[in-house]
Amino acid sequence: MDIAVGAEHTLCVTLDGDVYGWGSNSDGQLGLGHTLTIREPQKIGFLSGKGVQQVSAGRTHSAAWTAPRIVRGMNLHSGVDLRLGTPESIPPQYPLLQDIPIPALRARLKILFNFSDLLFGTWNMLPLLTYVVFA
Q1: Is 84 found in the same domain as 48?
Q2: pTM for the whole thing?
Q3: 2 pLDDT exceeds 60?
Q4: Count: domains in the chain
Q5: N or C, which end of the chain has less CB nearby within 10 Å?
Q6: Dihedral of the CA atoms 67, 72, 76, 77 (nearest 10)?
């Protein structure tokens, strides 16, 4: 379970991983497909079944964290094939990438992944650690 409070809206993740939002939605920050104000918690349907663990909210935006929570110092990526999410071909809407070989792009993406993973371990602003809930 997690709760995030933005400037004028609130998000909540239930123990089942469902996300509810309410408050100002003037910029569509609740992800409901409209910009109407929501006075009572409303389930954000497109996030159902996505395994949301944590949410954050700003002035006019929201974010949902769907990756597993990582305990600092735990290397979950050793021996893991990092091809997940790497391209097989370059879409035509990215003309500047067309001349870069796919293996080189994959290598760059792996570097970015490892860099962001290392950066995450030093970023104390958001508590993205495993929580223990006592009943």
Answers
A1: no
A2: 0.51
A3: yes
A4: 2
A5: C
A6: 90
